[in-house]
Design a protein that fits this description.
six-stranded antiparallel sheet; four-stranded antiparallel sheet; 297 residues
Length: 297
């Protein structure tokens, strides 16, 4: 209890006995700061180094060029859209997209130009946050001793912030408007060039690599005077209207295909385990505050 409560009890005529912190608890807390904290930090470093390596697995397993992985993106029961993508670290280095037009069943095929790669910013950002967390964990002398619990709590909060940001970059795709997708430069990646009534977008959602294809049709000016334009979204629905290049378009069809990327799933598991370790250490530090009238930090 705090000093205010003790004072009130005394004023009411109660007898109050106060125990000072015990030598046993002092020793436990000292061991926690000098030994267990470093054990947990080493565990976190090992886990996060493993997570970081998942984002850029070497082709040979012993270093060198980053491994290329092929993924087939399709939807069971329909062959409307199919994508064969080659992922190399945080970049799509090859992409073959087949689209069957719904009206006439015409099959369109587009592929990345050989001199083009498309960076997946979500993967790049997630890895950067992981590496920043590793830096925070290692940014001290090997013989450094923590002197207060508050010092450890601040470190854990900083590491958890980076891990939460890394996880959020994979679990929360960017919210984009259709004009932003149209002007992203992705259309210029393909040969033959995408027709003006086709938009494509690649993104990460949790442990999946996703491809969305939007089919559009041009709206006549006389029919769009009072139409509300679509805002930002992860996935736009048919009927969404937007303006691009002095022309208004409406989304007529939306096709989304996806494929699980196993190492992204591994990375998310590493993030979860690391966050749990950080929280457990914070909880242990906080437990000691219950033994004293003030924060033992």
């Amino acid at each position: 209890m705090g000093s205010g409560i003790v004072s009130n009890l005394l004023k009411m005529g109660h007898t109050v006995t106060v125990w000072n912190r015990t030598a046993e608890k002092e020793e436990e807390f000292k061991w926690l700061l000098q030994e267990e904290v470093h054990i947990v930090l080493k565990q976190l470093q090992d886990i996060l180094k493993e997570a970081s390596q998942r984002f850029a697995l070497p082709a040979s397993g012993l270093g060198g060029a980053v491994k290329q992985e092929n993924f087939v993106l399709s939807t069971s029961g329909t062959d409307q859209v199919k994508g064969v993508l080659t992922l190399q670290g945080d970049a799509l280095c090859q992409a073959d997209v087949s689209l069957k037009m719904p009206r006439n069943n015409q099959l369109l095929h587009f592929a990345f130009r050989e001199d083009k790669q498309w960076k997946l910013q979500q993967i790049q950002d997630a890895r950067n946050h992981v590496n920043q967390a590793i830096y925070l964990l290692m940014n001290r002398d090997v013989n450094y001793q923590f002197k207060t619990g508050l010092e450890v709590l601040k470190l854990m909060d900083a590491v958890m912030l980076q891990l939460s940001r890394a996880r959020n970059r994979l679990t929360t795709p960017a919210t984009l408007t259709l004009p932003e997708i149209a002007s992203s430069g992705l259309a210029k990646m393909f040969t033959p060039a995408l027709p003006p009534d086709i938009l494509v977008n690649f993104y990460i959602n949790l442990n999946k690599l996703c491809l969305t294809v939007y089919q559009l049709h041009v709206l006549q000016p006389s029919t769009t005077k009072n139409v509300k334009l679509a805002g930002g979204s992860i996935l736009h629905n048919p009927g969404a209207i937007f303006e691009f290049g002095n022309q208004r378009y409406e989304v007529s069809h939306v096709h989304k295909v996806e494929c699980v990327v196993p190492w992204l799933n591994d990375a998310l598991v590493f993030f979860t385990v690391s966050l749990q370790l950080c929280q457990q250490l914070k909880d242990k530090i906080s437990v000691f505050s219950s033994y004293w009238n003030y924060r033992p930090y």
